[in-house]
Write a structure and sequence with these properties.
The chain has 301 residues and is α/β, with parallel strands linked by helices. Among the domains are: 110 residues, Conserved hypothetical protein from pyrococcus furiosus pfu- 392566-001, ParB domain (Alpha-Beta Complex), CATH 3.90.1530.30; 97 residues, Arc Repressor Mutant, subunit A (Orthogonal Bundle), CATH 1.10.10. Helix content is 47%, strand content 11%. It has 13 helices and seven strands. The chain has a five-stranded mixed sheet with strand order 1-5-3-4-2. The chain has a two-stranded antiparallel sheet with strand order 6-7. The chain is elongated and about 65 Å long. This is Chromosome partitioning protein, ParB family.
């Protein structure tokens, strides 16, 4: 007889989950046979040791203090919200969503965990992991942007289709995707919570990466509010833009990487100019005397 629990859920939740069909054992099966997976909408008790982590998990960082607090809550109250897994074989499951709950349950010393069991291919797993995290776990903006990009590329979705999947309008999806075009130093600040999505939206409207990095440096240094950044952006965008003549030949990947790394280091758009014989120069532009002083200080001038 299976030791797995059957906790019936409401019709609405069952329909939303669209769980897989039951895998029922033969009536004459031995007691040692693999535990059954209960019917649609039910909750199964799965051994934690039999669950492997979802390789499509978009979240890359977990707050240890929050995990500890959730673990303490699980010790007292149990795990209220089940995780979701897919069954690989008789004694093996793969996590679809709920890695934070799984980690906290391990910390709490649980050996079994309540779970919805589904069948899903890799595309479905990626979509479900992303949607579950965005709606319930509050990914940082860069994790959301990277997850959106991955769904577009790996699941062949258009932005409108992606918006439908995650209940976001197209403009919201576009704003997240545009974060991936910001310089690496700014992306890191968004990821680490040093600047907000509001700051990022203001920076996105600036086309020149050198100006983006200049504003970004002042946000960090002076603790500028989103409103102040928007004002600074409007002032900078008033300056006339010089149009260059003939465009240079595209650089190699290795030189582009060096250019990007230098830009991140100096928080300004560094330009490499390389001639046909390999000779060239490095340009480090500055936007004020203070900015020049900052760069010279970094160069130990």
């Amino acid at each position: 007889m299976s030791n797995e629990k059957r906790n019936a859920l409401g019709k609405g939740l069952s329909a939303l989950l669209n769980d897989s069909a039951s895998v029922m054992p033969d009536k004459n099966s031995a007691v040692s046979a693999p535990a059954e997976v209960n019917s649609m909408g039910s909750v199964n008790e799965i051994k934690i040791a039999e669950i492997e982590v979802n390789p499509f998990q978009p979240r890359t960082e977990f707050d240890q203090q929050a995990l500890s607090e959730l673990s303490d809550s699980i010790k007292l109250q149990g795990l209220i919200q089940p995780i979701t897994v897919r069954r690989i074989n008789a004694h093996s499951y793969q996590l679809i969503s709920g890695e934070r709950r799984l980690r906290a349950s391990k910390l709490a010393g649980l050996t079994q965990i309540p779970a919805y069991v589904r069948t899903a291919n890799d595309q479905q797993m990626l979509e479900m992991a992303l949607i579950e995290n965005i709606q319930r776990e509050n990914l940082n903006a860069m994790e959301v942007a990277l997850s959106f990009q991955r769904m577009i590329e790996e699941c062949s979705l258009k932005q409108e289709e992606l918006g439908d999947r995650v209940s976001k309008n197209r403009s919201t999806v576009t704003n997240y995707l545009r974060l991936l075009k910001l310089p690496p130093a700014i992306q890191a600040s968004i990821r680490d919570g040093q600047i907000s999505m509001g700051h990022a939206r203001a920076l996105i409207s600036v086309e020149d990466p050198a100006k983006q990095l200049f504003i970004h440096q002042h946000i960090i240094k002076d603790g500028l509010s989103v409103r102040k950044v928007e004002e600074l952006v409007r002032e900078i965008q008033k300056a006339p833009v010089k149009k260059e003549g003939k465009q240079p030949e595209p650089m190699s990947y290795s030189l582009q990487k060096i250019e990007d790394d230098l830009a991140s280091k100096f928080s300004t758009r560094v330009k490499l100019k390389v001639g046909s014989q390999g000779k060239g120069m490095i340009e480090i532009p500055f936007l004020s005397e203070d900015d020049l002083g900052r760069i010279l200080e970094m160069l130990d001038w």
